[in-house]
Design brief:
Largest sheet: none
Distance between the termini: 32 Å
Strand content: under 5%
Number of strands: 0
Radius of gyration: 21 Å
Order of helices and strands: HHHHHHHHHH
Number of domains: 1
Number of helices: 10
Length: 277
C-alpha cells in the first residue's frame, strides 16, 4: 500500500515539514512584516520614556528626596533606587501595549487572525507567534533601558545584566493573560479601560516602583506583594543594587513563571475557542 501524496500546499505537509515550533515562527514573521514600517517610532519612544522618567523623577524629584534622607531607600540615591523599578514597570507597560489593542484589532477590526487561521497555522501557533513578537519588543526595550540606566549612573552592580531577563519575564507575566483576555472580547474594547484604570495604573504607582511598599498602609501591603509587578520590581532592584540572594531570587522568578505559565494555558484555550475553524 503506497503512502498518500501530500501537495506542497497541504496543511498536513506543512505541519510535517515545519513542525509546531516553525509554524509559530511563521506567525511571528507576519508581525515583523508590520513592524518594519513602524520600528523607528517605537525606538524613539523606547529611548525617550526612560530618559524622561529618569531625568524628571530620578534627578529632578530625586534631589528633594535625597535632601530629606535616603534611609528608607537602602541609603542609595533616589535615582539608583528608582531606575530598576522603572525597568520592570516599563516591561509591564510594553507588554500591555503589545497585548490588548493589537490582539483585539487582529481579531475584531482587521481580522488578520481569522485569515491566519484559514491557513495551516493553528490557533496555538498564532498565539505563540504573537508572544514571540512581544518577547522581542520586551528584549529591545529592556536592553535600551539598561543602557540608559548606565549612562545616568544608576547601576551599582554587574548583576544588573540579569535584570534584563527578569524584566522580560515580568512583561510576559502580563502579556500571556492579557492576550488570552483580549482575544475573547467579541463586542468592543470597553473592558480595556477598566484594565488601565484599575489595574495598570495602580500597579504602576503602588508596587514599589517609586517608593518602598513598606510605606503603604499595613492592610494593603499583601495586595502589593501578590502582584507580578512587585516581584519584578523587587528582583530587578536587588540585582541592580547587588543585594539579591539566591532563595529570594528563585522565589520571585518562580512566581512570575507560574503567572506566565497560567496565562499561556489560558491563551491556548482562548485562541482555540475564538479561532477554531
Amino acid at each position: 500500500m503506497t503512502a498518500p501524496v501530500l501537495r506542497a500546499d497541504s496543511p498536513q505537509r506543512c505541519d510535517r515539514v515545519a513542525g509546531p515550533g516553525r509554524m509559530a515562527v511563521r506567525a511571528f514573521q507576519s508581525w515583523l512584516v508590520n513592524y518594519r514600517r513602524t520600528w523607528r517610532g517605537t525606538i524613539y519612544s523606547s529611548v525617550l520614556m526612560p530618559v524622561l522618567y529618569l531625568g524628571a523623577m530620578g534627578l529632578g524629584l530625586g534631589t528633594l528626596v535625597n535632601q530629606h534622607g535616603t534611609a528608607s531607600l537602602g541609603r542609595v540615591s533616589y535615582l539608583v533606587f528608582l531606575a530598576p523599578g522603572l525597568m520592570a514597570a516599563t516591561a509591564m507597560q510594553t507588554a500591555v501595549g503589545e497585548s490588548l489593542y493589537p490582539v483585539f484589532s487582529a481579531v475584531k477590526w482587521q481580522q488578520t487572525y481569522q485569515a491566519a487561521a484559514a491557513t495551516p497555522l493553528k490557533p496555538g501557533d498564532i498565539f505563540r507567534g504573537h508572544l514571540l513578537f512581544t518577547t522581542m519588543r520586551l528584549t529591545m526595550n529592556m536592553i535600551i533601558f539598561l543602557a540608559i540606566m548606565s549612562v545616568f549612573g544608576a547601576v551599582r552592580s554587574a548583576w544588573v545584566v540579569a535584570a534584563v531577563p527578569v524584566a522580560i519575564l515580568t512583561g510576559l507575566a502580563f502579556a500571556t493573560p492579557l492576550d488570552a483576555f483580549a482575544v475573547s472580547q467579541k463586542k468592543n474594547d470597553q473592558a480595556f479601560n477598566m484594565i488601565f484604570r484599575f489595574g495598570m495604573i495602580p500597579l504602576f504607582l503602588f508596587s514599589g516602583t517609586f517608593f518602598p511598599v513598606t510605606q503603604l498602609p499595613a492592610w494593603i501591603r499583601p495586595l502589593a506583594y501578590a502582584t507580578p509587578l512587585w516581584h519584578g520590581v523587587a528582583l530587578c532592584r536587588a540585582l541592580s543594587l547587588g543585594t539579591a540572594d539566591l532563595a529570594g531570587a528563585l522565589g520571585h522568578v518562580a512566581y512570575l513563571a507560574v503567572v506566565a505559565g497560567l496565562g499561556l494555558v489560558a491563551g491556548e484555550r482562548s485562541y482555540r475557542r475564538r479561532l477554531h475553524v
